[in-house]
Amino acid sequence: MLKICYQTELVEAGCDEAGRGCLAGPVFAAAVILPEGFYHEKLNDSKQVTEEDRYELRTYIEKHAISYQVASVDHEEIDRINILNASFKAMHLAIEQLKTKAKFLIIDGNRFTKYKRIPHQCIIKGDSEYASIAAASILAKTYRDDFMRNLHTDYPQYKWITNKGYGTAEHRKAIVEFGITPYHRKSFTLTNNQLELDM
Q1: Where does a divalent metal cation bind (predicted)?
Q2: Which positions make up the binding site?
């Protein structure tokens, strides 16, 4: 069972991002403050949850959270400041917009750029250990998936409706065949050389 919080003295928000490894589109991040006693049997790291369950969980989290926010940083800024900094910036934006202010942050992963003067703790695989981080991972993932699904309408050949911008073989093959879109991250390796030779 997921733990509700890392510490109990300060109002705590869990933070996570989605889309860091994608070749196209923004990186999304969420910050979530959960009430004591929050529980949903399906809540887990978003990668361990089915798509249908993620959307069920999103509705439940948004209904029951004390406060939550989702923010994004677009592909152009990712190219400008790099994906790690863009991920931290998206988290900062989400934290900043929380209606209930967090006094302590728990972050999924092993690195984070301090936000203002709020103390934080980085937790490797935190999204499978703490409920607030898992909830943040669900929100970030579903909001990003929605964004990529909408883009798919304009760029169906890249199959973003299924790969969501990740570097799948079909996505990389489409880049070789059709070139890049305005939403691709130019600072990323978008094709692998072997694929280009095979074509």
Answers
A1: 16-17, 108
A2: 16-17, 108
Q: Which domain holds residue 171?
A: 156-198
The answer to whether residue 156 scores a pLDDT higher than 60 is: yes
DSSP state of 98: -
**Both 147 and 189 in a single domain?**
no
User: Quick one: 76 and 168 in the same domain?
Assistant: no
Q: Report the C-alpha gap between 49 and 16 in whole angstroms.
A: 15
In sign, the C-alpha dihedral spanning 13, 134, 88, 162 is negative
Backbone angles phi, psi at 7, to 5 degrees: -145, 165
Rounded to the nearest 10 degrees, what angle do helices 131-152 and 51-64 cross at? 120
Same-domain check for residues 35 and 83: yes
CA–CA distances in Å: residue 167 to residues 124, 162, 185: 24, 11, 11
In this structure, are 111 and 192 located in the same domain?
no
Q: How does pLDDT run across 84-101, given as a tens digit for each residue?
A: 999 999 999 999 999 999
* Residue ranges at the known binding site for a divalent metal cation: 16-17, 108
Average pLDDT over residues 73-89: 98
Whether 127 and 177 map to the same domain: the answer is: no
Per-residue model confidence (pLDDT) at position 193:
60
Query: How far is the C-alpha of 34 from the C-alpha of 112, rounded, in Å?
Result: 21
Read off the pLDDT of each residue in 105-114 and give the average, rounded to a whole number.
97
Terminal alpha carbon distance of the chain? 48
